[in-house]
TrEMBL record:
The keyword Oxidoreductase applies. One of its GO terms (biological process) is purine nucleobase metabolic process. It comes from Nocardiopsis eucommiae. The gene is pucL. PROSITE patterns: URICASE. This is Uricase. Catalyzes the oxidation of uric acid to 5-hydroxyisourate, which is further processed to form (S)-allantoin.
Length: 298
Protein backbone atom coordinates (compact mmCIF):
# COMPACT_ATOMS: atom_id res chain seq x y z
CA UNK A 1 0.00 0.00 0.00
CA UNK A 2 1.37 3.41 -0.95
CA UNK A 3 0.81 6.59 1.04
CA UNK A 4 0.88 10.06 -0.42
CA UNK A 5 -0.04 13.63 0.43
CA UNK A 6 -3.47 14.74 -0.75
CA UNK A 7 -4.97 18.20 -1.31
CA UNK A 8 -3.74 20.72 1.21
CA UNK A 9 -3.58 24.40 2.01
CA UNK A 10 -2.45 26.49 4.95
CA UNK A 11 -2.53 30.06 6.14
CA UNK A 12 -3.56 32.55 8.79
CA UNK A 13 -7.21 32.52 9.86
CA UNK A 14 -9.34 35.44 11.01
CA UNK A 15 -6.99 38.39 10.67
CA UNK A 16 -9.05 41.22 12.14
CA UNK A 17 -8.47 44.51 10.38
CA UNK A 18 -10.13 47.89 10.90
CA UNK A 19 -9.11 50.60 8.46
CA UNK A 20 -9.96 54.26 9.09
CA UNK A 21 -10.05 56.57 6.08
CA UNK A 22 -9.05 60.00 7.40
CA UNK A 23 -8.81 62.04 4.21
CA UNK A 24 -11.49 64.40 5.52
CA UNK A 25 -13.08 65.18 8.89
CA UNK A 26 -15.83 62.70 7.92
CA UNK A 27 -14.14 59.38 8.59
CA UNK A 28 -14.88 56.11 6.78
CA UNK A 29 -14.30 52.78 8.51
CA UNK A 30 -13.88 49.30 7.06
CA UNK A 31 -14.13 46.42 9.52
CA UNK A 32 -13.12 43.05 8.05
CA UNK A 33 -11.99 39.56 9.01
CA UNK A 34 -9.53 38.01 6.55
CA UNK A 35 -8.55 34.35 6.25
CA UNK A 36 -5.62 33.73 3.91
CA UNK A 37 -4.71 30.23 2.71
CA UNK A 38 -2.09 29.18 0.19
CA UNK A 39 -1.49 26.12 -1.98
CA UNK A 40 1.82 25.25 -3.61
CA UNK A 41 4.92 23.10 -3.62
CA UNK A 42 4.41 21.87 -0.07
CA UNK A 43 5.25 18.19 -0.36
CA UNK A 44 8.49 18.35 1.60
CA UNK A 45 7.23 20.51 4.43
CA UNK A 46 4.70 17.76 5.15
CA UNK A 47 6.89 14.75 4.57
CA UNK A 48 10.29 15.78 5.94
CA UNK A 49 9.72 19.15 7.62
CA UNK A 50 11.58 21.22 5.00
CA UNK A 51 10.21 24.77 5.40
CA UNK A 52 12.12 26.33 2.48
CA UNK A 53 8.89 26.74 0.46
CA UNK A 54 6.52 27.42 3.36
CA UNK A 55 5.71 31.14 3.57
CA UNK A 56 4.96 31.66 7.29
CA UNK A 57 1.37 32.22 8.27
CA UNK A 58 2.59 35.22 10.27
CA UNK A 59 3.89 36.71 7.02
CA UNK A 60 0.45 36.28 5.49
CA UNK A 61 -1.07 38.13 8.46
CA UNK A 62 1.43 40.98 8.17
CA UNK A 63 0.81 41.21 4.42
CA UNK A 64 -2.90 41.84 5.02
CA UNK A 65 -2.12 44.81 7.28
CA UNK A 66 0.67 46.19 5.10
CA UNK A 67 -1.37 46.03 1.90
CA UNK A 68 -4.29 47.82 3.55
CA UNK A 69 -1.86 50.70 4.09
CA UNK A 70 -0.01 50.46 0.76
CA UNK A 71 -3.22 50.24 -1.25
CA UNK A 72 -4.89 53.12 0.57
CA UNK A 73 -7.53 51.03 2.28
CA UNK A 74 -9.63 47.95 1.64
CA UNK A 75 -12.30 49.07 -0.83
CA UNK A 76 -14.70 46.40 -2.03
CA UNK A 77 -13.80 43.20 -0.20
CA UNK A 78 -13.81 41.28 -3.49
CA UNK A 79 -11.19 43.61 -4.95
CA UNK A 80 -9.06 43.39 -1.81
CA UNK A 81 -9.24 39.58 -1.83
CA UNK A 82 -8.31 39.42 -5.51
CA UNK A 83 -5.33 41.71 -4.99
CA UNK A 84 -4.14 39.63 -2.03
CA UNK A 85 -4.48 36.39 -3.99
CA UNK A 86 -2.59 37.84 -6.94
CA UNK A 87 0.16 39.14 -4.66
CA UNK A 88 0.76 35.76 -3.03
CA UNK A 89 0.69 33.79 -6.30
CA UNK A 90 2.60 36.27 -8.46
CA UNK A 91 5.29 37.22 -5.93
CA UNK A 92 6.21 33.73 -4.69
CA UNK A 93 7.20 31.13 -7.28
CA UNK A 94 6.49 28.22 -4.92
CA UNK A 95 2.86 29.36 -4.43
CA UNK A 96 0.50 28.36 -7.24
CA UNK A 97 -2.87 28.90 -5.57
CA UNK A 98 -4.51 31.13 -2.99
CA UNK A 99 -7.83 31.25 -1.19
CA UNK A 100 -8.80 34.56 0.39
CA UNK A 101 -11.96 34.70 2.47
CA UNK A 102 -13.22 38.01 3.87
CA UNK A 103 -16.13 38.88 6.13
CA UNK A 104 -17.19 42.51 6.43
CA UNK A 105 -19.06 43.96 9.41
CA UNK A 106 -21.16 47.03 8.69
CA UNK A 107 -21.22 50.16 10.81
CA UNK A 108 -23.64 53.10 10.53
CA UNK A 109 -23.00 56.68 11.56
CA UNK A 110 -24.68 57.56 14.83
CA UNK A 111 -27.57 59.95 14.25
CA UNK A 112 -27.43 63.19 16.24
CA UNK A 113 -29.54 66.33 16.36
CA UNK A 114 -27.02 67.84 13.92
CA UNK A 115 -27.13 64.86 11.53
CA UNK A 116 -24.93 61.77 11.10
CA UNK A 117 -21.83 62.04 13.27
CA UNK A 118 -18.48 62.45 11.52
CA UNK A 119 -16.58 59.80 13.47
CA UNK A 120 -18.96 57.88 15.76
CA UNK A 121 -20.60 54.65 14.59
CA UNK A 122 -22.92 51.86 15.71
CA UNK A 123 -22.64 48.24 14.60
CA UNK A 124 -25.40 47.02 12.25
CA UNK A 125 -26.57 43.81 13.96
CA UNK A 126 -25.49 40.31 12.97
CA UNK A 127 -25.58 40.70 9.20
CA UNK A 128 -22.22 40.03 7.55
CA UNK A 129 -21.03 40.55 3.99
CA UNK A 130 -18.78 37.78 2.66
CA UNK A 131 -16.52 36.87 -0.22
CA UNK A 132 -14.25 33.95 -1.09
CA UNK A 133 -11.67 34.36 -3.87
CA UNK A 134 -9.89 31.29 -5.23
CA UNK A 135 -6.90 31.67 -7.54
CA UNK A 136 -5.07 28.79 -9.22
CA UNK A 137 -2.43 30.04 -11.60
CA UNK A 138 -4.20 32.35 -14.04
CA UNK A 139 -7.70 31.12 -13.13
CA UNK A 140 -9.70 33.21 -10.67
CA UNK A 141 -13.14 32.74 -9.12
CA UNK A 142 -15.19 35.07 -6.92
CA UNK A 143 -18.09 33.93 -4.73
CA UNK A 144 -19.75 36.68 -2.69
CA UNK A 145 -22.74 36.94 -0.44
CA UNK A 146 -24.14 37.70 2.98
CA UNK A 147 -25.28 35.84 6.07
CA UNK A 148 -27.35 36.67 9.12
CA UNK A 149 -29.93 38.78 7.25
CA UNK A 150 -32.96 38.25 9.51
CA UNK A 151 -36.34 38.95 7.93
CA UNK A 152 -39.97 38.43 8.91
CA UNK A 153 -43.37 39.07 7.35
CA UNK A 154 -46.44 38.96 9.59
CA UNK A 155 -48.86 37.86 6.85
CA UNK A 156 -48.82 37.05 3.14
CA UNK A 157 -47.64 33.48 3.75
CA UNK A 158 -49.53 30.18 3.56
CA UNK A 159 -48.66 26.49 3.85
CA UNK A 160 -51.09 23.74 2.86
CA UNK A 161 -51.66 20.90 0.42
CA UNK A 162 -48.76 18.80 1.69
CA UNK A 163 -48.79 14.99 2.10
CA UNK A 164 -50.28 13.73 5.33
CA UNK A 165 -49.24 10.55 7.15
CA UNK A 166 -50.14 9.10 10.54
CA UNK A 167 -47.24 11.15 11.94
CA UNK A 168 -48.50 14.50 10.60
CA UNK A 169 -49.77 16.91 13.23
CA UNK A 170 -49.03 20.25 11.54
CA UNK A 171 -52.21 22.17 10.80
CA UNK A 172 -52.63 23.72 7.37
CA UNK A 173 -52.78 27.50 7.31
CA UNK A 174 -53.58 30.28 4.88
CA UNK A 175 -52.11 33.00 7.11
CA UNK A 176 -48.86 32.56 9.00
CA UNK A 177 -45.71 34.40 10.02
CA UNK A 178 -42.79 33.72 7.65
CA UNK A 179 -39.37 34.36 9.18
CA UNK A 180 -35.85 33.32 8.24
CA UNK A 181 -32.17 34.20 8.46
CA UNK A 182 -30.95 34.46 4.88
CA UNK A 183 -27.52 33.17 3.92
CA UNK A 184 -26.80 33.74 0.24
CA UNK A 185 -23.75 33.14 -1.91
CA UNK A 186 -23.46 34.00 -5.60
CA UNK A 187 -20.82 33.16 -8.18
CA UNK A 188 -19.59 35.86 -10.53
CA UNK A 189 -18.60 35.32 -14.14
CA UNK A 190 -15.22 37.02 -14.40
CA UNK A 191 -13.66 39.45 -11.95
CA UNK A 192 -14.06 42.91 -13.54
CA UNK A 193 -17.19 44.18 -11.78
CA UNK A 194 -18.40 46.97 -9.50
CA UNK A 195 -18.72 44.61 -6.55
CA UNK A 196 -20.09 47.17 -4.10
CA UNK A 197 -22.87 48.16 -6.50
CA UNK A 198 -23.72 44.54 -7.29
CA UNK A 199 -23.83 43.61 -3.60
CA UNK A 200 -26.21 46.45 -2.74
CA UNK A 201 -28.47 45.51 -5.63
CA UNK A 202 -28.59 41.78 -4.83
CA UNK A 203 -29.36 42.47 -1.18
CA UNK A 204 -32.12 44.93 -2.10
CA UNK A 205 -33.68 42.47 -4.58
CA UNK A 206 -33.70 39.67 -2.01
CA UNK A 207 -35.43 41.92 0.52
CA UNK A 208 -37.97 43.19 -2.02
CA UNK A 209 -38.90 39.73 -3.28
CA UNK A 210 -39.18 38.35 0.26
CA UNK A 211 -41.59 41.18 1.09
CA UNK A 212 -43.61 41.21 -2.14
CA UNK A 213 -43.96 37.48 -2.91
CA UNK A 214 -47.19 35.99 -1.60
CA UNK A 215 -45.61 32.83 -0.29
CA UNK A 216 -47.10 29.35 -0.49
CA UNK A 217 -43.81 27.87 0.77
CA UNK A 218 -40.43 29.22 1.81
CA UNK A 219 -39.00 27.33 -1.19
CA UNK A 220 -41.18 29.42 -3.51
CA UNK A 221 -39.94 32.64 -1.92
CA UNK A 222 -36.32 31.48 -2.22
CA UNK A 223 -36.75 30.73 -5.91
CA UNK A 224 -38.39 34.12 -6.55
CA UNK A 225 -35.47 35.87 -4.87
CA UNK A 226 -32.90 33.95 -6.91
CA UNK A 227 -34.76 34.49 -10.18
CA UNK A 228 -34.92 38.25 -9.62
CA UNK A 229 -31.18 38.40 -8.92
CA UNK A 230 -30.22 36.47 -12.07
CA UNK A 231 -32.60 38.46 -14.27
CA UNK A 232 -31.07 41.73 -13.05
CA UNK A 233 -27.42 40.62 -13.03
CA UNK A 234 -26.02 38.87 -16.10
CA UNK A 235 -22.60 38.87 -14.42
CA UNK A 236 -23.90 36.36 -11.83
CA UNK A 237 -23.95 32.72 -12.91
CA UNK A 238 -25.76 31.22 -9.92
CA UNK A 239 -26.95 32.03 -6.43
CA UNK A 240 -27.22 29.60 -3.54
CA UNK A 241 -29.40 30.06 -0.47
CA UNK A 242 -29.56 28.47 2.96
CA UNK A 243 -32.66 29.64 4.84
CA UNK A 244 -34.00 28.22 8.10
CA UNK A 245 -37.74 28.40 8.61
CA UNK A 246 -37.90 30.21 11.95
CA UNK A 247 -41.21 28.84 13.17
CA UNK A 248 -43.78 31.01 14.95
CA UNK A 249 -46.60 28.95 16.46
CA UNK A 250 -49.97 30.40 17.38
CA UNK A 251 -50.52 30.15 21.13
CA UNK A 252 -53.76 28.48 22.26
CA UNK A 253 -55.34 30.95 24.70
CA UNK A 254 -58.69 29.16 24.99
CA UNK A 255 -57.85 27.94 28.52
CA UNK A 256 -57.97 31.59 29.59
CA UNK A 257 -61.24 32.32 27.78
CA UNK A 258 -59.41 34.28 25.10
CA UNK A 259 -59.39 34.03 21.34
CA UNK A 260 -56.20 34.51 19.32
CA UNK A 261 -56.81 35.98 15.86
CA UNK A 262 -53.20 35.52 14.67
CA UNK A 263 -51.80 37.97 17.22
CA UNK A 264 -49.91 36.02 19.90
CA UNK A 265 -47.17 33.59 18.83
CA UNK A 266 -44.48 31.41 20.38
CA UNK A 267 -41.16 31.91 18.57
CA UNK A 268 -39.42 28.51 18.52
CA UNK A 269 -35.64 28.48 18.03
CA UNK A 270 -35.42 24.71 17.42
CA UNK A 271 -36.06 22.40 15.76
CA UNK A 272 -36.46 24.38 12.57
CA UNK A 273 -36.93 23.67 8.89
CA UNK A 274 -33.85 24.28 6.76
CA UNK A 275 -34.39 25.16 3.13
CA UNK A 276 -31.44 25.15 0.71
CA UNK A 277 -31.35 25.49 -3.07
CA UNK A 278 -29.36 26.82 -6.00
CA UNK A 279 -30.91 29.04 -8.67
CA UNK A 280 -28.72 29.00 -11.78
CA UNK A 281 -28.56 29.92 -15.43
CA UNK A 282 -28.79 26.95 -17.77
CA UNK A 283 -26.02 28.46 -19.91
CA UNK A 284 -23.73 29.48 -17.06
CA UNK A 285 -20.04 28.57 -17.36
CA UNK A 286 -18.88 25.66 -15.23
CA UNK A 287 -17.95 26.67 -11.68
CA UNK A 288 -14.47 25.16 -11.74
CA UNK A 289 -13.00 25.63 -8.26
CA UNK A 290 -15.24 28.58 -7.39
CA UNK A 291 -16.97 26.73 -4.56
CA UNK A 292 -13.82 25.05 -3.32
CA UNK A 293 -13.65 25.05 0.48
CA UNK A 294 -16.96 26.86 0.98
CA UNK A 295 -18.65 24.48 3.44
CA UNK A 296 -22.33 24.20 4.14
CA UNK A 297 -23.69 24.67 0.64
CA UNK A 298 -25.13 22.05 -1.68
Amino acid sequence: MGIRLGDNQYGKAEVRLVHVQRDTDVHQIKDVNVTSQLRGDLEEVHTVGDNSKCLPTDTQKNTVYAKAREWGGVGAIEDFALRLARHFVDEHEYVYGARQEIEEYSWDRIATSKGPHDHAFSRRGAETRTTVVNKDGDKEWVVSGFEGLTVLKSTGSEFHGYPRTRYTTLAETDDRILATDVTARWRYVGTDHDFDKAYASVRALCLELFAETHSLALQQTLYAMGTAVLEAHPEIAEIRFSMPNNHHFLVDLSAFGLDNPNEVFFAADRPYGKIEATVERDDAPAPGDAWKAIPGFI
